[in-house]
């Protein structure tokens, strides 16, 4: 029962500050998001936040790939002889 109470406990402000600070470190942020998202003993609030953040990152990545490929194809066709 103690494990379940730990999962539903409110995440403190200090814990969120540490979390946001760790999110600023490249590569480590993605590893931590994956860990927080899929680790069984993680707090539900932090796990859901990590899953939502990963979804936003994936949507951003899709848009970046679309935009970069569009510009590359435009410039390749522009300078083709």
Tally of DSSP β-strands = 0
Net shape: elongated
- The rounded Rg comes to 19 Å
Total tally of structural domains: 1
Largest sheet: none
- Which percent bin holds the helix content? over 70%
Instruction: Give the number of helices.
Output: 4
Unreliable residue stretches: none
Whole-Å distance between the termini? 71 Å
What fraction of the residues are assigned to beta strands by DSSP? under 5%
Report the average pLDDT across residues: 91
Layout of strands and helices, then pairs:
Layout: H1 2-8, H2 13-22, H3 28-38, H4 44-78
Textual characterization of the structure:
This protein is mainly alpha-helical and 81 residues long. It has one domain (2-78). It contains four helices and no strands. The protein has helices at residues 2-8, 13-22, 28-38, 44-78. Helix 3 (28-38) packs across helix 4 (44-78).
Briefly, what is this?
With 81 residues, the chain is mostly helical.
Notable traits:
mainly alpha, single chain
């Amino acid at each position: 029962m103690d494990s379940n109470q730990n999962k539903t406990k409110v995440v403190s402000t200090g814990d969120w500050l540490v979390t946001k600070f760790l999110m600023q470190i490249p590569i480590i942020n993605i590893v931590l998001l994956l860990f927080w998202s899929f680790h069984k003993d993680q707090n539900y609030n932090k796990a859901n936040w990590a899953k939502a953040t990963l979804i936003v990152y994936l949507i951003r990545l899709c848009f970046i790939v679309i935009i970069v490929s569009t510009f590359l194809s435009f410039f390749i066709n522009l300078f083709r002889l």
